[in-house]
Amino acid sequence: MKINTKRILLMLIGNILCGFSVGMFQFASFGIDPFNIGVMGLWHLIKLFDYGTFYLIFSLILVTLDFLFLDKKKLGLGTIANMFLVGYVIEVSYWILSKIFPIPSTLIRVIFLIVALVILCFSSSLYYVADMGVSPYDAIPLTISERTGWKFKIVRVTADCLWVVIGLIGSHLPGVATILIAFCLGPLIEAFHPLCRRILDEKGDL
């Protein structure tokens, strides 16, 4: 894992955009990404703290499990940034969009859905390529893929579907966006990797 200014910047941008995209999904009201639908399902069951704080606490639990049982090399500054940024960025971005578009039309919601999907895939690829540690959740399918030789997109789709089930248990229903993300995120993240590597320029120098 290389550490330099450009990698740190790309990692931070990737995490912030990731949170912003989930806020856009939430605003569009067509469902959100499988991981957050699972976390929100648990949040609704437990009913403690605001979502940003609950996301942070849950991420701490996941990162502890990652550290004990999975590949420690997947964890780093990016993992910490994800834990402390994403949940709160989701809350703030959703609040801002709700103020700007208090009663959005169906067309506006569909546009936000499409843009959010593109941003989520791009931002996920961006912080993967920055190689400074992935989110506590992403470390799981990445490690399984590397250890088994199974394709990442297949492992990711399977993991996403499991989180949808957890969300259902917590009465947080999936939507069109949830299905799109569950089946498209893995392949689209891989599709963005060449672009993100060019942005990083491999050496990662400014």
TrEMBL record:
Q: Where are the transmembrane segments?
A: 12-32, 52-70, 77-96, 108-130, 161-189
Question: Pfam families from the entry?
Answer: DUF6198
Keywords for this protein:
Membrane, Transmembrane, Transmembrane helix
Q: What is this protein called?
A: Membrane protein YczE
